[in-house]
Amino acid sequence: MTDRTPDREQLTDLLSQQWEAIGILVADLDEKAWRKPSPLPGWTLFDVVAHVVGTESWLLGDTPPPHDPLRPKTDVRTLPHVRNEVAVLNEIWVDRLRPLSGKRLLALFDEVTDRRRAALAAMDEQAWQTPTVSPVGQVPYGRFMRVRLFDCWMHELDLADGIGRTVAEGGGRAETAFTELTLGLGRAVVKGAKAPDGSRITIDLSGPVTRQIHLAVVDGRGAVLEAAEGEPTAVISMDSGLFARLRGGRTTAAAHRDAVTVTGDTALGERLVQNLAFTI
Questions:
Q1: What is the pLDDT of residues 34-72, one digit of tens each?
Q2: For the Mycothiol-dependent maleylpyruvate isomerase metal-binding domain, which residue ranges apply (predicted)?
Q3: How far apart are CA 120 and CA 144, in angstroms?
Q4: Which CATH number, 2.60.40.10, 1.10.10.10, 1.10.357.10, 1.20.120.450, labels domain 8-178?
Q5: What is the distance of C-alpha 70 from the center of its chain?
Q6: Which label site among 4, 54, 170, 249 has the fewest CB atoms less than 10 Å from its CB?
């Protein structure tokens, strides 16, 4: 499966829409609601938005606020959900922003995302294509921004699930986020599902994002195919919203047994469903 750097104008517009959607979703939360738990371990709804603020601030060259000496200092590396250096930086930003009120955090979110819109609008094509360190390795800056869209889109779902609201999960932002959800599936097929050589798996997603994802294992390597090649060994059918949450590690297959159908080699298909998560 080929992966070209996303179009600059299209993706920056989608990012702007995504930030606006998050702002609207949390605009009416009171202070008690801000502190409700999210689907992410250790994070409240406040923390989810603080994480977005922190990452976008970091991309602007900002550093985390200083630690308040009146607050107990947390060694974020000891937290069970912190597993790598990216998570350490995320957690530092979240921890430093926690003393703010929800209202102040939302104002900061609006200010930071407005600055990011301006920075992206001023960026030329050369900068968009420049290799940049990102959570998925060194990639063109434009690819990194697609990762940012995916991350923010997933966090919109986290916020909606934590609040108990339904949001639109289809459209351009979702379609673009699904590119990131799909890319690493070859690894899940081999490392997680232990699919043998010659295996062909189709994941059939119903709306709001409707698509078929075709996977194959050749010479011990899993790959996402542009189109199906032969009869599938297994077919997995589910709703795209559940697929996104399974890939994001927000839930487990065991909690949604009736929402997933596997035909063909059911053992193989079920192993893959149980090993879809690649992020949390």
A1: 999 999 999 999 999 999 999 999 999 999 988 887 788
A2: 16-160
A3: 12
A4: 1.20.120.450
A5: 34
A6: 4
